[in-house]
């Protein structure tokens, strides 16, 4: 599934920080693992946009 966000840089950073610090505690271990996996995917996508890797050779 692909989801696109139209966020300014500050909002993207705030969402990244929140996704990084949030700890699921629903009481359902399976649901908590699913949420953690989804947040990890979100963090990875935000990190790639906020801190792009330098081009090869630099």
Q: How would you characterize the overall build of this protein?
A:
This protein has helices at 9-21, 29-50. With 58 residues, the protein is mainly alpha-helical. The chain has one domain (9-50). Helix 1 (9-21) packs antiparallel against helix 2 (29-50). It is elongated and about 45 Å long.
Strand tally: 0
User: Residue share in helices?
Assistant: 55-70%
Shape: elongated
Q: Assess the beta-strand content as a share of residues.
A: under 5%
Distance between the termini: 33 Å
Poorly predicted runs are: none
How many helices in DSSP terms? Answer: 2
> Given the helix and strand composition, which structural class is it?
mainly alpha
List the helices and strands and how they pair.
Layout: H1 9-21, H2 29-50
Helix pairs in contact: 1-2
Key features?
mainly alpha
In short:
The protein has 58 residues and is an all-alpha fold. It has one domain (9-50). The protein contains 2 helices and no strands.
């Amino acid at each position: 599934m692909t989801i696109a966000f139209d966020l300014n840089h500050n909002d993207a950073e705030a969402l990244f920080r929140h996704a990084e610090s949030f700890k699921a505690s629903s009481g359902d271990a399976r649901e908590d693992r699913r949420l953690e996996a989804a947040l990890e995917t979100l963090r990875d996508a935000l990190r790639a946009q906020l801190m792009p890797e330098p081009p090869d050779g630099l």
